[in-house]
Amino acid sequence: MATDSKKEREREELHRAIWAIADELRGAVDGWDFKNYVLGMMFYRYISENLTEYVNKGEHEAGNTDFDYAAMPDEDAEIAREGLVQEKGFFILPSELFANVTTRAKDDENLNETLEKVFHNIEESAKGSPSEKDFAGLFDDFDVNSNKLGSTVAKRNERLVKLLNGVSLMKLGSVQDHDIDAFGDAYEYLMSMYASNAGKSGGEFFTPADVSILLTRLGTVGKTKVNKVYETPCLIPIQNQAA
């Protein structure tokens, strides 16, 4: 019961955060495009924090307890680029981490160009590595120069600042400490908010995490050891899943 309560609390907090961002951008970004912007920014934050925690943990274990990758000069971090790409599959300069870009965002008159460069650099960092295909075109749906964000650069940047700040306020914590799949739950919530209104019933499908967990448990009943579990995609339009 305690786990279920924690899961529901986390889910409600995530939904409130997404709704707050939607409220900030009301009338500016179409709901269906809004989904791509929120998920893209959430992923940018996640990989930034994932890399930072990974580097910091290694330094702290080595005795450098005051080390913080986010505060490291870019030129010093470049030395570790090759090793980090091999270990993590990607690389982000300290100045291009989500937290640092967000801190400077309000005063960055070229924020759209900054984000475009950051996303390009993240994708490029994986080239030549086994993760290249995973990162190729990763941010293609996140168009920082789209008129859907605003008719002028200033308006687009104003909304990008709101988006950065909104995602930064999400209580995602460490993925390992969460009882929900933050990205999957965010996707499901956004789909339920906008799918039917956007006429996206055909081809847009999603299996809720709870369904996947249930199917996995059913498939492993009576087993003490399992090599792998394959779940056939659940082709149910999101707006009909409540039925």
Number of helices: 10
Radius of gyration (CA) equals 20 Å
Beta-strand portion reads under 5%
Low-confidence runs of at least 5 consecutive residues: 234-243
CATH topology of the largest domain: Ferritin
Structural class: mainly alpha
Helical percent range? 55-70%
CATH class division of the largest domain: Mainly Alpha
Sketch the topology as an H/E string, one letter per element: HHHHHHHHHH
Give the CATH H-level superfamily of the largest domain.
N6 adenine-specific DNA methyltransferase, N-terminal domain
The shape is globular
Amino- and carboxy-terminal Cα gap: 25 Å
Instruction: Count structural domains.
Output: 2
* Major β-sheet profile: none
E-strand count: 0
Averaging pLDDT over every residue, what do you get?
A: 80
- Tell me what the CATH architecture of the largest domain is: Up-down Bundle
What does this structure look like?
This protein is mainly α. Residues about 235-243 have low confidence and may be disordered. It is built from 10 helices and no strands. It has 2 domains: about 1-200, N6 adenine-specific DNA methyltransferase, N-terminal domain (Ferritin), CATH 1.20.1260; about 200-243, no CATH class. It has helices spanning about 1-25, 30-60, 75, 80-90, 100-105, 110-125, 130-135, 155-170, 180-200, 210-220. α2 (about 30-60) crosses α8 and α5 crosses α8. The radius of gyration is 20 Å and the shape is globular. The chain is about 55% helix and about 0% strand.
Topology:
Layout: H1 2-24, H2 31-61, H3 74-77, H4 81-88, H5 98-105, H6 111-125, H7 132-135, H8 153-168, H9 182-198, H10 209-219
Helix pairs in contact: 1-8, 1-9, 2-8, 2-9, 5-8
